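Hi everyone, sorry if this is the wrong subforum. Our group has a chain we'd like a structural model of before ordering constructs, and none of us has done structure prediction before. Sequence below.
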Amino acid sequence: MSELKNLPHRVWDWDKDGSHNFIGETQANLNFLQSNFRAELENTNKKVKKIGILKVVEFKSTLSYSLLDYMTGGLDMSLMVAIDFTGSNGHPANPQSLHYLNSSQGSQYQQAIRTIGNILSCYDSDQKFP
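Answer:
Right subforum, don't worry. Here is the predicted structure as tokens:
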């Protein structure tokens, strides 16, 4: 679990022009941060190594889920396809048009749908693509 690892926490002096200055760092894990965390900051670039104290006054943690988390949780995807046939994309007879039908490969739209569809279809349980 990542919450048990001691990770470096770096403190910077923020400057509006983007030239932020490193103040110091400390090591802590998530559980330590949640429990009124107080730790000495160290800066190995300075003669005086102990540079100050980092105190967490308020702590909020938000879970972030990945696509894999959703998939293992039972998410079912449905692949849907739509094509933009507006005139601004060019006439289908024009080789520069996105709608141009290349006899061996199809249009650029067909190529993109085929490429993406081949990947996403693996996650569609009923294999029906409206």
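For your construct planning: The mean pLDDT is 79. Strands lie at 7-13, 21-28, 38-42, 50-55.
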